[in-house]
Amino acid sequence: MAVVLDCAALAPSVHNTQPWQMRTDGDLIELRADRSRQLGYLDPTGRQLHVSCGAAIEFGYLAARSTGRECAVSLLPDPSDPDLLAVLWLGDNRAPTPTERDLAEAIALRYTDRGPYSDRAVPDDVIADIARRAAELDVWTRTLDEAAERRTLISVLYDAEQAEAADPRYANELAEWTGTEGHVGLPADSIASRWPADRVSQVPLRDFSGHAEHPSPNGQADEPPPTVERDLLLMFGTAVDERGSWLAAGRALGWALLRAASVGVSAQPLGPAIDLPVERARLRYELGLVGFPQFVLRMGYGQDRPRTRRQH
């Protein structure tokens, strides 16, 4: 049981807040929301808390399966207890599938790589597997391949981060959860920029200084323009926008990150696009989405990065 809890705790979470509490009772694991770790500015509805906890649920599920046990998951099992987000029951012995074993092994390898990625394409079968698992969880995925789609995302990311940077509440919250030295939050070495001067991302990546400043794809007037990196952009969404769908999106995200990590593919969340309701609504409208965007990732083959710390 301890290995299941340890693996679940390695799940990604918004600003590494790890907004969950887990307890065991025999073969049962309860995962509860830790509201003290909910972001007041970026997550007023608790949506990102639920997505984060959904990823922890999926990590725990895969860890349980890797031990050779059945694992049943019940989301939001008690309407009278809204902070009880999930119950996992470990059942009879059943050998894990090769995929379940591979993904469980990838839990210790996965990390958020905020640096440059190579031009090597993410394999089509990886994206197909992610879409298939997401569909099992009632989550849809969409790769943003078309130039117009990518321009829309770039515009939303830019405008969202500019709006956030103009609000002192954002700066205060960012300062609270970055540059930390404990077991939660984002340590300085995990968010330090390691991009070379001659390479920039096509999409603006979150500036953890809170100033929304990014290098220009056009470069300096007296220098050649830098190489613009065009990574795979993958969106996760749901048909409805409520707590159960947020948890399901988190489970799909968790599975996707592990499937990618199992073949050496890195990922980074593009948070500003889905941080606040107004930008999510704009993304939905301008991309003509049938449903609600819940998460966006950039994916590719990157370099090793320091990992964020975890509670014990």
Task: Describe what you observe in this structure.
With 312 residues, this protein is α+β, with helices and mostly antiparallel strands. It folds into two domains: 113 residues, NADH Oxidase; 161 residues, NADH Oxidase. The protein has nine helices and ten strands. Strands 1-2-4-3 form a four-stranded antiparallel β-sheet, with helices on one face. Strands 5-8-10-9 form a four-stranded antiparallel β-sheet, with helices on both faces. A hairpin with an 8-residue loop joins strand 3 and strand 4. Helix 2 packs across helix 3. The longest helix has 20 residues.
Task: Tell me the name of the CATH homologous superfamily of the largest domain.
Answer: NADH Oxidase
User: How is the largest sheet built, in terms of strand order?
Assistant: 1-2-4-3
Specify Rg, calculated over alpha carbons: 19 Å
The largest sheet, given as strand count, sense and whether it forms a barrel, is: 4 strands, antiparallel
The percent range for helix content is 25-40%
Q: If you consult CATH, what is the topology of the largest domain? A: NADH Oxidase
Order of helices and strands: HEEHEEHHEHHHEEEHEHE
Number of helices: 9
Oligomeric description of these chains = single chain
Number of domains: 2
Please identify, by name, the CATH architecture of the largest domain: 3-Layer(aba) Sandwich
In whole angstroms, how far apart are the ends?
A: 15 Å
Q: How would you classify the helix and strand content by structural class?
A: alpha+beta
What's the CATH first level of the largest domain? Answer: Alpha Beta
Portion in strands: 15-25%
Based on Cα principal axes, name the global outline.
globular
Count of beta strands: 10
Uncertain segments are: none
